[in-house]
Amino acid sequence: MTAQYEVRGAVAVITLDNPPVNGLGYATRVGITDGLARAEGDAAVKAIVITGAGKAFSGGADIREFGTPKALAEPNLLSVILALEACTKPVVAAIHSVCMGGGLELAMGCHYRVAVPGTQVALPEVKLGLVPGAGGTQRLPRLIGLENALNMIVSGEAVKSELLAVVPGQKLFDKMIDGDLMAGALAFATEVADRHAKDKSPLPLVRKLKVTHPNADAYLQFTRNTVGAMSRNFPAPLKCVEAVAASLTLPFDAGMRKEREIFISLMMTPESKALRHAFFAERAAGKIPDVPADTPLRDVKKVAVIGAGTMGGGIAMNFLNAGLPVVMLEMKQEALDKGLATIRKNYESQVKRGKLKADKYEQRMALLSTTLNYGDLKDADMAIEAVFEDIGVKQQVFKALDEVMKPGAILATNTSTLDVDKIAAFTKRPQDVIGTHFFSPANVMKLLEVVRGAKTAKDVLATVMALGKKIRKTCVVSGVCDGFIGNRMIEQYSRQAGFLIEEGCTPVQVDKAMEKFGMAMGPFRMGDLAGNDIGWYIRKRRYVEKPDLKYSKTADLLCELGRFGQKTGAGWYDYKPGKRDAIPSKLVEDMIATHRKELGITPRKISDDEIVQRLVFSLVNEGAKIVEEGIALRASDIDVIYLTGYGFPLHRGGPMCYADTVGLFNVAQAMKRFARNPLDDQKFWQPAPLLARLVAEGKTFS
Length: 702
Ligand code: NAI
Hints:
Radius of gyration: 29 Å
Shape: globular
Number of strands: 19
CATH topology of the largest domain: 2-enoyl-CoA Hydratase, Chain A, domain 1
Number of helices: 29
CATH class of the largest domain: Alpha Beta
Bound molecules: 1,4-dihydronicotinamide adenine dinucleotide
């Protein structure tokens, strides 16, 4: 049962009941139309109330049915709304908690609406690259005015019901109900039914209202300009303006046709596909096939953080923000003092910018304690280690943790390159050891790679995934390998960037091409920000471990000059003291030119297309290997990592989604072309077996 029917006095009550948010799936839609028919046929019923069970009125479409025949099966939402409008007895929507998307469109199809304060009201379709598709763009302006409706539809943001209720002239809510919504709705429904019975007035329909605006043309032009400028890579926001404008210029039914036309055209755009992909990918990332959703979790009430450096401080802040006490351990008091001062400075800057209330800041700091003594960690339920990236140091720390931490405590490492299984083996409880790979700055970046060791217990994994959610991270599971998912791929990307400058590009050209593609930052600006010494350190290890792997030497030459990036005031670019603006460096260009000469390379002109393809497809090829090896559970997990942790453009949906959009056949063809370039790593460009197989079968990653 996904919609319930009962009669209370003379009012029929249809209750949407499709947890978690009463999505308007097929069975629910049938439930509504059946309920309407029953109420129409029952002479004892004089009005109908529609409401939602549990935590929502309705959150809109049932996303579980997306892409299935059920999503469009009749009665579709448009038909349900027509049935509501056609009902001869007044239908009152009783709205609470969440009223979004199709849920709001449904409510606007009712004759009347009552709501409780605090309800989140939104048409969020733009966030999936769409416009509302069941009359939202035509009815909302009729109820709250052109400007308010445009703001809501273009932004997709939720507005509280009590704010909408005070919009001058609004007709969205006929009555606000403080207290018992159902009692209020029943009384209201009875009252309007009696009134209509008495004065024989027709039932009000939103479609009959008119949208007016004193200066519509100028206002719409202004909106088109601002929205266009703010949403360059996304067509949907401007299309929202177009659809809403139709509510002003066209009769209702013509406006509905316009909305439908726009909706269908947007469904086909790569941007909407990318946004929908990202939306579902993020949901899928939380699912681990062999770890059921109801796995019992371990209790984590207090967290220990080992190391108060760059990462340790940021990691601690995440837990403090979520209200969990943290004890931070260092070897020396100075290091603790420094770490503590950085945390304070971070919070103080948030207070100054008005992002954090002063009392909240104090509350958070009160949750933080520090120590030099492992004995003080014994009441913590989890320890996260963020000490130097050195296996010897990690060994010391994990042995000490094994000694003092209580049985069942989770022992996590924030290592970025070391073997989590090896670290687990330093303890007598490898089942309790896991990797939590945060990204810098750890208190800001959304991504958390959760590294599952060979022996990590399922409940440890489930607990860390849940805890990640609690501290508002996007968690993706990775198996153990060098660099895990994100950094293992970025190494290939950086190698390609190196070859490109050897062959003829400047760092500026590469960065510009990638930024035009949509990356938040090109690879060289990114290197300067993260510190070029990190890559240098990794390459030195590679030269020993994998002497056959080819790298451009330019990055090493740069580091030999001490140009580690912003922190040393110079890297691939020059920097003015205290400034972050990347200034193209003559010295670096000369250095590259000299190096090319030494290698006997005549520089060639390289197109932006080639730059983008070599860099992005290097991610794709390594990504395919990662999926095949089972390091990533699914290709879409890789997209989540790149969208949330590496500045990959959202409108492209992540590297794997982008490859699907380009066509895997075309991707593999390009790789074969790159494999013929003697200055590139020819072996690397053999399409990964998974990719080759998908091409042969005409399939995609998703
Ligand atoms: P950091 O050098 O800023 O901080 C390390 C801290 O650990 C220092 O304060 C040091 O005093 C302390 N420490 C060293 N040995 C210790 C011991 N035996 N007991 C207690 N404290 C000890 O280093 P950072 O950047 O915070 O890195 C920490 C870990 O996080 C490393 O494993 C690194 O690979 C990893 N990581 C770093 C990222 C970054 O962008 N910096 C990103 C993701 C992971």
